[in-house]
Structures are given as C-alpha cells and as structure tokens.
Write a structure and sequence with these properties.
This protein has 186 residues and is an alpha/beta fold. The protein is 32% helix and 15% strand. Strand 6 (136-141), helix 4 (148-163) and strand 7 (173-174) form a beta-alpha-beta unit. It is globular and about 55 Å long. It starts with 6 loop residues before the first strand and ends in a 12-residue tail after the last strand.
C-alpha cells in the first residue's frame, strides 16, 4: 500500500548490454493534518499510484533488452542501503522482484557450486563491504523456493542479510506475491 507522505524508489536490477541500471524516485506530499486526508490529498495518492504503475512497467520491461546480460543484486542492495540511510529512520521496505541469482563477473550464482560460501560473507563483513540495512524490511518475490538450488540460494541470502543487519522472514522470501498488502514485516 502507498500512503500520503511515502517515498517510492524503483531500481532496475538487470541490465542488457552497455545500458546502466535505471531508476525512478518520487514521493507524495505529507498531508497538512496527520491522519486527515483531504480530497486533493486522496487525488495525489491516486495519481502517484498511477504514475508508479507506469514507471514500474517501463523499468521492469524485460523485452527492452534483447538479452539480459547481468543481474547485479549486490549493487542494487548497496544502492537501496544508501536510500535507507538517507530516509532518516522512516520505515523502509526493500522489495526485491528477483530470482535472487546474482550474475555478474565477480559473483555468478548459476549453479549450486558457484553460490558464495559462509567464509565469503564473513570476509566481506570483516572488511566492511556489506551494506548495512538495520531497520529495513526486506521482501523477496520471484525466488525459486522449491528446488535444492533455490534453497541454497535462499540460505545464502538469509546469511547475507543477517550480516547486513536485517533478516528476511520465511514468509517474505517467496516466488510470488498476489496481493500488495502481503509486502510487510511484522
């Protein structure tokens, strides 16, 4: 759900060819009286939702690139951590619409053997190379949760997010979210 006063940032996770990841960010003005929406406040929220739907369809159009050549989940998480830090302690939700299989020259997760080890996470953490997401609600939609490889990928990300100072609740790491109200942390 989107409310008056919210800020929404969409970041493209996959890139095709030489095109850099795109993003869109906007916010809805906070109502003058907290908890009381005027007709124009409601109209702003509805307009914002319509624009966000259009931007989402543009940013996540996989046909735009002839071939998706990389999926940089680590880069996306780092950018999201910067946004979360800048949010000045406002509640922040990171919704990753992804299969969670990173495919960059540094880290390819295309087979179970290529999933980074616990030691890799510890080394990154020790050298302060894991972005911090304390207080951020993380939700994943699009991940394979049924295969052995999918379970290994999920276990990796659970450990990675723990090192980042947050966690992904079991109900928040899944293949599909059918209702936007399901995007939340308890």
């Amino acid at each position: 759900p989107i409310y008056a006063g919210d800020r929404l940032t969409l970041i493209e996770v996959y890139q095709g060819g030489r095109e850099p990841a795109r993003q869109w960010s906007d916010s809805i003005r906070t109502p003058r009286k907290k908890g009381e929406l005027t007709g124009s406040d409601r109209r702003r929220v509805d307009d914002f939702k319509a624009i966000a739907r259009i931007q989402t369809s543009v940013l996540f159009d996989s046909t735009r690139a002839k071939e998706i050549q990389s999926t940089d989940i680590f880069g996306t998480i780092a950018r999201a951590a910067d946004y979360a830090q800048a949010s000045r302690n406002r509640p922040t939700t990171l919704l990753l619409l992804s299969d969670m299989i990173n495919e960059t020259p540094d880290v390819r997760m295309t087979s179970s053997q290529e999933i980074p080890s616990d030691g890799w996470i510890r080394r990154l953490s020790a050298s302060r190379r894991i972005p911090q997401l304390r207080g951020v609600c993380v939700v994943v939609a699009g991940a394979d949760v049924s295969s052995a490889r999918g379970a290994a990928v999920r276990d990796f990300w659970n450990k990675y997010f723990e090192a980042a100072g947050t966690r992904v609740a079991p109900d928040n790491y899944r293949n599909m979210i059918s209702n936007p109200s399901e995007v939340s942390c308890s």
